[in-house]
């Protein structure tokens, strides 16, 4: 029976505890998690003094399946393990030649295949064998709406807290480029440590990342939920003056996610706090505040129609429809439809 696919967190925990698998097939669209696991293995499996003799890094474009097979069949020199890392494994020629080896891998070899931006067919003999004898991990892109939770979790690993608003500000500004996002989080963690602080606030984000704590998508969502017309228009005008740092597609994505979730609230049978949190996948009641307010201000049919309007605005912002119209005018027209 094939193994169930393990999570990123469980792989990291096992490697840190030195519970190694003889094979790691790391595949998928998100390179960040693949790189994190690979880097940890390269820093953990072998002591630094053994790496020159027992660690081999290959590149898929430069080798074929036979080269990888020969490397995997070597025995370590005066060590319990040898580590063979194949980067860009999606470019390996004749990868299937490894199938018989991975059915019975050498326990002294840890073979890591970085199969980035693609996924292997799980029905093929190679992948079936890999799932039985090793770890197969599919690294998936994190949806935009889950990025704030990723930010909170990432900082928690460094014993740093963050306000929900600050997490949303970072998410909206940096998007789901996890490498860029984590560099900013690491920078904030260092700054907090130097100042003897333990929590990232909107003020700290504004000061060190360059995002306004008053004019951002989090605040826009908050005032739209409350139907604060004047404040909403001020924020949209601010965005129009700095479109490079406030792209319309990001704002539209935030609005689309909000009203889509609001519609879920209307169709959820259990509308208690716990029921709505479960339906939306939220961890904190604080995240529900704008939805509770929104349900008072936006009837279900209005929400349904607004989702269509946001999609229409998104299409227009990408030039669909033929009529040239500025992003500023698209946002102003959409905002009027939302608030009136």
Query: Distance between termini?
Result: 58 Å
Query: How are the strands of the largest sheet arranged?
Result: 2-3-4-1-5
Write down the domain tally: 3
Overall residue-averaged pLDDT value: 89
CATH class of the largest domain: Alpha Beta
Poorly predicted runs of 5 or more residues? none
User: In the CATH hierarchy, what is the architecture of the largest domain at level 2?
Assistant: 3-Layer(aba) Sandwich
- Give me the CATH superfamily of the largest domain: P-loop containing nucleotide triphosphate hydrolases
By oligomeric state, this entry counts as: single chain
What is the CA-atom radius of gyration, in angstroms?
A: 24 Å
Q: Please report which band the strand proportion falls in: under 5%, 5-15%, 15-25%, 25-35%, 35-45% or over 45%.
A: 5-15%
Pairing-aware structural class of the strands and helices?
Answer: alpha/beta
Written as H for each helix and E for each strand, in order along the chain, the element string is: HEHHEHEHEHEHEHHEHHHHHHHH
Q: Globular, elongated, flat, extended or rod-shaped: what is the shape?
A: elongated
Number of helices: 17
Q: Fill in the CATH topology of the largest domain.
A: Rossmann fold
Q: Largest sheet at a glance?
A: 5 strands, parallel
User: How many E strands?
Assistant: 7
Percent helix among the residues? 40-55%
Structure notes:
This protein is an alpha/beta fold. The protein has three domains: 8-138, Rossmann fold; 142-213, Helicase, Ruva Protein, domain 3, CATH 1.10.8.60; 244-340, no CATH class. Helices cover 55% and strands 10% of the residues. The chain contains 17 helices and seven strands. The protein has helices at residues 8-16, 31-44, 51-54, 65-72, 99-103, 125-133, 147-156, 164-174, 178-195, 202-209, 217-225, 229-241, 248-267, 273-280, 289-297, 300-317, 327-339; strands at 23-28, 55-59, 82-87, 109-116, 135-138, 161-162, 199-200. The strands form two sheets. Strands 2-3-4-1-5 form a five-stranded parallel sheet, sandwiched between helices. A two-stranded parallel ribbon has the order 6-7. Strand 3, helix 5 (99-103) and strand 4 (109-116) form a beta-alpha-beta unit. The N and C termini lie far apart (58 Å). The relative contact order is 0.08.
């Amino acid at each position: 029976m094939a193994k169930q696919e393990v999570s990123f967190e469980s792989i990291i925990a096992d490697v840190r505890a030195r519970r190694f698998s003889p094979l790691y097939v790391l595949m998928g669209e998100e390179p960040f998690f693949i790189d994190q696991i690979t880097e940890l293995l390269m820093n953990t499996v072998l002591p630094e003094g053994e790496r020159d003799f027992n660690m081999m890094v290959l590149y898929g474009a430069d080798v074929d399946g036979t080269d990888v097979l020969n490397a995997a069949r070597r025995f370590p020199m005066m060590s319990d393990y040898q580590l063979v890392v194949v980067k860009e494994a999606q470019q390996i020629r004749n990868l299937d030649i490894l199938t018989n080896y991975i059915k019975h891998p050498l326990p002294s070899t840890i073979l890591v295949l970085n199969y980035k931006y693609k996924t292997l067919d799980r029905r093929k003999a190679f992948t079936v064998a890999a799932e039985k004898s090793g770890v197969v991990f599919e690294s998936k892109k994190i949806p935009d709406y889950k990025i704030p939770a990723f930010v909170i979790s990432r900082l928690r690993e460094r014993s740093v807290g963050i306000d929900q608003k600050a997490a949303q500000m970072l998410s909206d500004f940096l998007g789901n480029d996890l490498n860029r996002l984590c560099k900013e989080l690491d920078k904030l963690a260092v700054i907090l440590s130097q100042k003897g602080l333990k929590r990232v606030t909107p003020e700290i984000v504004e000061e060190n990342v360059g995002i306004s704590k008053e004019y951002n998508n989090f605040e826009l969502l908050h005032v739209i939920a409350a139907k604060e017309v004047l404040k909403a228009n001020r924020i949209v005008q601010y965005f129009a003056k700095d479109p490079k740092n406030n792209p319309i597609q990001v704002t539209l994505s935030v609005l689309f996610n909000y009203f889509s979730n609001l519609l879920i609230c209307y169709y959820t049978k259990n509308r208690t706090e716990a029921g709505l949190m479960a339906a939306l996948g939220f961890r904190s009641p604080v995240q529900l505040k704008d939805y509770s307010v929104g349900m008072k201000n936006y009837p279900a049919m209005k929400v349904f129609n607004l989702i269509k309007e946001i999609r229409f605005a998104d299409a227009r912002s990408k030039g669909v429809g033929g009529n040239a119209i500025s992003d500023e005018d698209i946002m102003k027209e959409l905002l009027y439809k939302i608030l009136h």
